[in-house]
Amino acid sequence: MTNLLRLRFVAFVLAVLSFPAATLADNTPVHAHILVDARTGTILESKNADVIGYPASLTKMMTLYLTFEALRYGKIQWDQRLEISENANSKEPYKFAVGAGNKITVREAVMGMVVLSTNDAATAIAEHLAGSEAAFGRLMTAKARELGMNNTVFTNPSGLPDPAQVTTAIDMARLGLALIRDYPEEYKLFSSRGMTFRGMKFRGHNGFLVRYPGADGIKTGYTRASGYNIVTSATDGRRRLVGVVMGAKSGNARTEEMIALFDQHMNALSGQ
């Protein structure tokens, strides 16, 4: 990033911080998309891919990245139990709702974030690894810089609305590619269409995962300010594409847009 672009980005973040969240939530979400060849890094198609928007629950991709990193280095264990704090228990709308003071395992937290986008699980992971959501947000942003996500700022682990938590479609593509590259075994969890939690069965929110052949992840998100977001990946057995849609008008609209992008470019590549 050039000094001029960096200054513009800092100015943008400062401007965002000066407005109340309710005012920002009234703005029309940025509609953006990008499709990338995972092997070569070639951008096959993009629209507004470097325009700042809100990640919503795509944020949990970074929470999961740092969780996988902590598991790799033995900071936590899959069967380790995490206590749900009052703060974690307060996170709506999607949560395990086991109640403050009760516990979930790291494995349950991971699967909850992957399939159901559980906010209490994301908060419990953050508080355990960093002591607070704010401290974890700083770790998330630092890791984003390491991964080349230069226009992303994280402030909480769940993606719940915060005007200071911003990203771009191209940065989300970089994060998706990093998960596939750095944690290939853990990445397989993203293909899960549902999960069972303590005897109860739940379905996920990712329509693309169900409808597109070869789809195997990654994450959806929605807030009023962000619109309907998705980062996803699919492979035809020879090549893999990673796509991002942000700011769609509905869950079905983001799925249809992503299917159209994949159909166009996967078919074109297959003919080469």
Describe this protein's structure.
The protein is of the alpha+beta class. The chain has one domain: 3-Layer(aba) Sandwich (Beta-lactamase). 43% of the residues lie in helices and 19% in strands. The protein contains 11 helices and 9 strands. It has helices spanning 3-17, 21-25, 60-72, 86-89, 106-116, 119-130, 133-146, 169-182, 184-187, 207-211, 251-270, and strands at residues 32-37, 43-47, 81-83, 103-105, 194-197, 200-203, 215-223, 227-235, 240-248. A 5-stranded antiparallel β-sheet has the order 2-1-9-8-7, sandwiched between helices. It has a two-stranded antiparallel ribbon with strand order 3-4. Strands 5-6 form a two-stranded antiparallel sheet. A hairpin with a 4-residue loop joins strand 8 (227-235) and strand 9 (240-248). Helix 3 packs across helix 6 (119-130), helix 5 crosses helix 6 and helix 6 (119-130) crosses helix 7 (133-146). The model is unreliable at 1-26 (pLDDT under 50).
What's the arrangement of secondary structure elements?
Layout: H1 3-17, H2 21-25, E1 32-37, E2 43-47, H3 60-72, E3 81-83, H4 86-89, E4 103-105, H5 106-116, H6 119-130, H7 133-146, H8 169-182, H9 184-187, E5 194-197, E6 200-203, H10 207-211, E7 215-223, E8 227-235, E9 240-248, H11 251-270
Antiparallel strand pairs: 1-2, 1-9, 3-4, 5-6, 7-8, 8-9
Helix pairs in contact: 3-6, 5-6, 6-7
